[in-house]
């Protein structure tokens, strides 16, 4: 038996990258999965490849009506019990170069979209006896990063909302946790698609490489499963040790022979 037999899940941003990996892994563990995204051709292709267990819906997560439609589709497939709030956008710019419109566009997707998804999921999950919500934040929801003021703001907000939701929803057997990925080899984490050089940016961390979407998916699957039945309000860094600290090449024990490696993160 799969860990998600008899359960229906919604995964946002599921047309590619982390969301696709999460949707595929949930389906492999017995879930029926609603894949939500705005990249319709890609999303439909992924759902078709997964098979009968998957359905694609167009979902702009900042749109309340589209959320209600996605949840109605999930409810029509069985017991809606799992939400992975994965979709996000990023608009890098220095603060003085960030327009209010650009700032709010990121907030509306990453922060408000996550909020709407959680809010609209409460009633059906409660009616179904409980559920699990996994919000994908970022290591940038735990620290600052120059050039990412809107993204930082939104991911810190996701971290805070997660804890508030955990406190409010535990009484309904709904667990809410956040995942904080470091660099991940997706179109967002590796926009140039250059796999030959991408690991060079991660020589400062304990595991000196970029992460794979499947590694984030495995963490999300754990937190959404009954294996994590006593975990709520937690934040899990899946970051290769990024938040543990920074390896200094010049000091003993670094294991690195190249002095002066730097990374402006």
UniProtKB/TrEMBL annotation:
<dbReference type="Pfam" id="PF13561">
    <property type="entry name" value="adh_short_C2"/>
</dbReference>
<keyword id="KW-0443">Lipid metabolism</keyword>
<dbReference type="InterPro" id="IPR036291">
    <property type="entry name" value="NAD(P)-bd_dom_sf"/>
</dbReference>
<dbReference type="GO" id="GO:0016491">
    <property type="term" value="F:oxidoreductase activity"/>
</dbReference>
<dbReference type="InterPro" id="IPR002347">
    <property type="entry name" value="SDR_fam"/>
</dbReference>
<dbReference type="GO" id="GO:0006629">
    <property type="term" value="P:lipid metabolic process"/>
</dbReference>
<keyword id="KW-0560">Oxidoreductase</keyword>
<comment type="similarity">
    <text>Belongs to the short-chain dehydrogenases/reductases (SDR) family.</text>
</comment>
<protein>
    <submittedName>
        <fullName>Unannotated protein</fullName>
    </submittedName>
</protein>
<keyword id="KW-0520">NAD</keyword>
<dbReference type="InterPro" id="IPR020904">
    <property type="entry name" value="Sc_DH/Rdtase_CS"/>
</dbReference>
